[in-house]
Amino acid sequence: MPHEKRYKSFHNIETLDFIVDSIDALIYVIDLEEKRILYSNLKAKEAFGTIDGKVCYEVLQEQKEQVCDFCSLAQKDFPLQVGATYKWENYNPITQKTYLFSDQIIRWYDGTLVKVQIGIDISKQKQLENEMMQQRDDALDSFEALTNATIEGLIILDEDKRCIFVNAVAPKLFGYSAEEMIGKPATYFVAKESQALVKSYIQKRDKDPYESLLIRKDGSKFPALLRGKDIMLGGKKVRISAVMDISTMKEKEQEISKLAYYDPLTALPNRTMLVDRLNQLIHKSIRDLSYGALMFIDLDNFKTINDTKGHLVGDLILKECAKRISQIIRKYDFVARLGGDEFVILVDTQTPDKGIAISKVKSIASKVLERLRIPFIINQSDFRMSASIGIMMFVDEEYSIDDLMRYADSAMYHSKERERGSFSFFNPELQDKMEKKALLLDKLHKAIEEKKIYLHYQKQIDKDENTIGLEALARWQDDELGFVSPSEFIPLAEESGLIVKLGEFVLSEAVHHIKSWEEDAEKKNWHISINVSLKQFESYSFEDVIKQVLQRSEIAPHKLKLEITESLFLHNIDQAIEKISHLKNLGVSLSIDDFGTGYSSLSYLKKLPIDELKIDRSFIQDILQDKNDETIVLAILDLGKKFGFNVTAEGVESEEVQQKLLQMGCEYFQGYYFGRPVHISKL
Ligand code: C2E
Ligand code: MG
Ligand code: MG
Question: Is the CB of 345 under 6 A from ligand 1?
C-alpha cells in the first residue's frame, strides 16, 4: 500500500492527533519494511521539520545512506514481531540532544509491521549525570591518590569478590600488574593454607584484622595482615580489603621467640623449650602407652679443651656437636642444649613394647657416642672428644620434669664413673647411690664449713727408725654417719671442688704445727707432708696461697712437703712442670705420691725438681710373695738413686717387709708397723 494513503488514514483520528501533539515527547510511527516515517507528532516536527513520508534515516541521520541508527530493532537482529519492545538511548547530532527511546512493534491496520517510537528528551538528566560522573572521576582520582599513599595494598572487590580496583601498592606486593589483578577472584591471591580462613572472613563480613598467608605471582608466599570492610560505593556493595605484608614483623617475632626458646650459640632449642616438649612427651606416652626417653649427653673432656684452648675453640666444638647430634635424631625426636657441654635428646619411641623401645633408644645413644668420637678438626687441629650418656625411659607414669631430669642426670654420672664414653639406663639402685652421694656431699659441705674435718698424722721414718716427718691425713667423723673414710669423701670433695677449701684448711693446720714445734727439740726438724689434689694444684690461686702462708708463718719452707700424684702429668706435662718449678722456687719440698700407679710416662721425671718418690703401698704389701712387685720396687729405688730423689715405701705393715726393703736399699718408710695415723696429741 502507498505510504501516503496509510499516512492519511492515520490523520483521520483527530482527537488522537491532538493528544499526541500535546505530549512532550517525539513520537514516530515507522514502517519497518521501507523505513519510512508514517507519522510524526508536533514535537518531532519541531525537531526535524516535516518528516512524514520520508525515509527515516535520511531525515534523522542527515541523509546517510546506511540503516538508520534509530531503527535499533532492525539493527539488533531483534525478532520483528508484534509486541516486541525495546528501550534505548541515543544522542542526536542534529538536535544535539539525547533521547531515551521506547519502541514497540505493532501491526498496522493494513497488516504491515510498524514501530511506534516514543523519544523523551533526557539531555538535562544526561548532563547532570555527566557532571556527577566527572565528580565521581575526580573523587576516584583523589581516592586513588589517597590509597596509593598508604603502605598497605588496597583491593576493592565487587559483589562476586572479584578485584575491581587495586592501589599502586597491591601489585607490588603480589608481583602482578594492576591489569592482571583486576577481574581475578580475591582467593586467587591467597595461599592454599589460608583459603578457608579468608573465605570465612569475607563471608562473615568480618571487619577484624587477621593474619593469613598470601601468594605472589612467582608462587612464593608471604604472611599478611588483612582487614576488610563492606561498603556501598556508587550504589554497589563492595568490599575494601587492606593487605599489609608482615614478613619483617614475623621475622622479628621469630627472632624474639628464638631468643626465648633457642640457644644462641648452637641454634638448638634451649631448656625452656625442652621442658615444654618433655611435658608433651610425658602426656603422649601416658595416653598412647608408648615409651618415651630422656637422654642426657655430657661431653667428657670439654672443660679441659675449653680451659686450655680457649672459648672460641670450645664454642666451635659445641656447635659441631649440636650439628652431629641433630643429624642423628629422627623426625619424632627432639634435641636441645641445656647449657655448657650438656645436650638432651627426647626420644619418642612410638611403641608400647619395652624391648623395641630400648633397642631404638640404644641405637640412638650408640650413634651419638660414635659420631662424637670422630675427631673435631678446628683451625687445622684435631680434637678428640667423648661423651657420656644417661637415659631415663618412661611410659605410663606421671613423672615430674624435675624427677626425669634428675634420673637421666644420675644415669649419666653413672656412665662417667663406670666408663667414660658410654651410656647407661637409669635404675633405682643407681638413684639410691646417687642420692646417698648427694647427701654425703651436703654433709661434707657443712663439715668443712663447721670445721668438723680434722687431721691425723702418720709418722715417716728413716732407715734408723728416726722420725723425720709426718703425713697429714684428713679425717671426718659425722654425727649420723660415723667415721667416713677419706677414700670416700676425698674423691667427692675433689669432684665437687670442695677439695680446694679442704686443702687450705690442711695447709694452715700443718703450717701451724710446724711453727709450734720450732722450739721443740724432738720435733723441730720434722717436716709435714700434705696431700695436694689435682683440682687444688690446678687452681689459679694455689701458688699464691702457699707463698702467703709461708710468708705469714715464717717457717722454713722445706719443712712443708707437698705430695702430688702422677695424674698431674696426664693432662699438660709442660704446664705441670712449670708450676712445680715455681713451687720449688718457694723452697717447699715436693713428693710424688702413690708412685707407680699413674701409668704416666717416666720421661717427665728428669725434668722435675722433686725431692721424693713414695712407692705406692700396693707394691709393698705383697713384696715378700710377689716377685713382680719386688722387681718394680727395685726399679723405683734405682730410679730414685739415679735422679737423686729420696724413695719412701708406703704401707709397711711388718718388720719383715721393712727388713726386705732395707736389704733392697730403701731408706725411708711409712706404715702401720711404725704407727697408724693418730691425733697430734698422741704422737
Ligand atoms: P695417701 O696419700 O697415699 O695416704 C696414705 C694412706 O695409706 C692413708 O689412708 C693411710 O692411712 C694409709 N696407710 C698408711 N699406712 C698404711 C698401712 O700400713 N697399711 C694400709 N693398708 N694403709 C696404710 P687414708 O688416710 O685412708 O687416706 C687415703 C687417701 O686419701 C690418701 O692416700 C690421700 O690420697 C687421700 N687424702 C687423705 N687426706 C687428704 C687430704 O687432706 N687432702 C687430699 N688431697 N687427699 C687426702
Ligand atoms: Mg699421701
Ligand atoms: Mg700414697
Answer: no
CA-wise closest residue to 506 among 536, 539, 477: 536
Q: How does pLDDT run across 424-455, given as a tens digit for each residue?
A: 999 888 777 777 888 999 999 999 999 899 99
Residues, the chain: 683
**CB-based contacts of 431, cutoff 8 Å, min separation 6:** 407, 410
Residue 408 to residue 274: CA distance in whole angstroms: 14
Which of 448, 457, 484, 531 has the most ligand 1 atoms within 8 A of CB, as the residue to mutate? 531
Distance of CA 116 to the CA centre of its chain: 83
User: How far apart are alpha carbons 646 and 636 in whole angstroms?
Assistant: 10
Q: Residue of the nearest CA to atom 10 in ligand 1?
A: 677
Q: Which are the contacts of 274, defined by CB distance < 8 A and separation ≥ 6?
A: 334, 336, 338, 344, 346
Phi, psi of 70 (to 5 degrees): -70, -25
Grid cell locating 657: 717387709
Distance of alpha carbon 73 from alpha carbon 59, whole angstroms:
18
pTM of the model: 0.53
Distance CA 279, CA 399 (A): 9
486, 506 contact by CB (below 8 A) = no
8 A C-beta contact, residue 328 and residue 370: no
Distance CA 569, CA 180 (A): 78
Main-chain dihedrals φ then ψ at residue 571, nearest 5 degrees? -85, -75
Radius of gyration of the chain (CA): 52
Instruction: Calculate how far, in angstroms, residue 516's C-alpha sits from the geometric centre of ligand 1.
Output: 24
